Amino acid sequence: MHRTEADGLLAPDGSLEARHVVSSDLGDLTIDSEGGLWWRDGADEPRRLTDTGVVQVATDSSTAAYRTTAGAVLVWGDSSAGQSGQVLDLPVADPRRVIDAGGDPLGDVVDVAVDGRTLAAVTGAGTVLVWGDGRSGQLGPGRDPVAGAAPAPVLAADGRPLTDVVDVAVGGQHVLALTADGRVLSWGSDSHGQLGRVGGQDRDGDAVPRQVPLPGTVTGVAANELDSYATLADGTVMAWGNAESGQTGTDAVDTVLAVPQQVVGAEDVECVVAGEAFAAALTFDGRVLTWGAGGAGQLAAADERQRRTAGLALGDDAAPVTGVAWLGSGGRVLFAGVTG
User: Fold this and answer.
1) Is 188 within 8 Å of 174 (Cβ atoms)?
2) Which residue in 66, 46, 39, 21 sits closest to 325, CA to CA?
3) For position 75, what pLDDT does the model report?
4) Strand order through the sheet with 306-312
5) Strand, helix or coil at 145?
6) Are 48 and 34 in contact (CB under 8 A)?
7) Count of C-beta atoms within a 10 Å radius of residue 25
8) Model-level pTM?
9) How far apart are CA 131 and CA 79, in angstroms?
10) Nearest Cα to 95, choosing from 104, 105, 103?
11) What was the pLDDT predicted at 302?
């Protein structure tokens, strides 16, 4: 399956062809064909952080993380909210392996995501670990947000750890988890309806993971600060949350879309990535659809500065971009890996 996360890569598992995957205020991060990780942090030339073994990268504006083939997670950048597994006054200058609540190196991780000073990881056993900022309930029920530095399992409403999770996305102060049977759970802030709850927006949010009402089997999730997205098995996309700049793609006239609706014009979609107030989808035939805010050109839509429904990404010749194998996003930037 595909992995998605806020401001992160989207590429098939095990696919290590060179790809520019993420960009943020920390700089650009690239995984090369050998699984090495390159970091360009304002210098003219990127530096290589590690030679091999990197399979996934995630970043927000101040913290970056990568996952290795062995299931370890390494973090650097801001750790003032415990993003590295410890609350630190100074940023972590070089990647540091995250330590679990028992003091052991975190392992067996199959997916990692970061946004809004919060990190989430899925383990091989299907549990979800969250650490860092938890002031909006991102850590799950029963967790003290002040003491949320160490990774700990997210609990379900019955007090037992979540299970059977295969994918996770963090968007600002909320979290989405995809289960093996195609359901989506959400928890955290609901300031703009990003939890997608029946009954509408709850500004107080909810620390308890609850199922999002969606009309089919979900194959992937993505999130940005105030929005959530789900790709369905039939190739359609559902979106909910802040609609002010058209980022739900539903042609909504309201600024908040608290109940999931279908993205207009998004069909035959394999997966979705989300950036700052915009989203992009990769179709099965290698085209790219974009919607939302486009003032920085991130929609690849000629001179269109906003799209309220999905439309094709265009190249320099104003023709639709084709042959795309993967997408990546970061802030107001969209990357597309073209084959050939």
Assistant:
1) yes
2) 21
3) 95
4) 269-275, 278-283, 288-293, 306-312
5) helix
6) no
7) 13
8) 0.92
9) 11
10) 105
11) 86
Structure token pair of residue 315:
């190249």
Instruction: Please state, in angstroms and rounded to a whole number, the distance separating the CA atoms of residues 21 and 8.
Output: 7
Q: The tokens of 220 are what? A: 């992937």
Q: Length of the chain in residues, anyone?
A: 340
Contacts of residues 202-208 at CB distance under 8 Å and 24 or more positions apart, as own/partner, are: 205/136, 205/137, 205/173, 205/174, 206/137, 207/137, 207/138, 207/139, 207/140, 207/141, 207/143, 208/140, 208/141, 208/156, 208/157
pLDDT at 8 over 60: no
Find out whether 267 and 236 touch, Cβ atoms under 8 Å: yes
Q: Count of H helices and E strands in the chain?
A: 0, 27
The whole-angstrom separation of Cα 316 and Cα 102 is 53
Which residues are CB-contacts of 163 (< 8 A; sequence separation ≥ 6)?
Answer: 125, 126, 127
- Rounded to whole angstroms, how far apart are CA atoms 228 and 222? 6
pLDDT 10s digits, 128-155: 999 999 999 999 998 887 766 789 999 9
Angle among Cα 321, 23, 31 to the nearest 5 degrees reads 80
Could you report how far apart the first and last alpha carbons of the chain are, in Å? Answer: 23
For tokens 């890996």, name the residue.
337
Spatial neighbors of 243 by CB under 8 A, at least 6 apart, are: 250, 252, 254, 255, 256, 257
- The tokens 């991060």 sit on which residue? 29
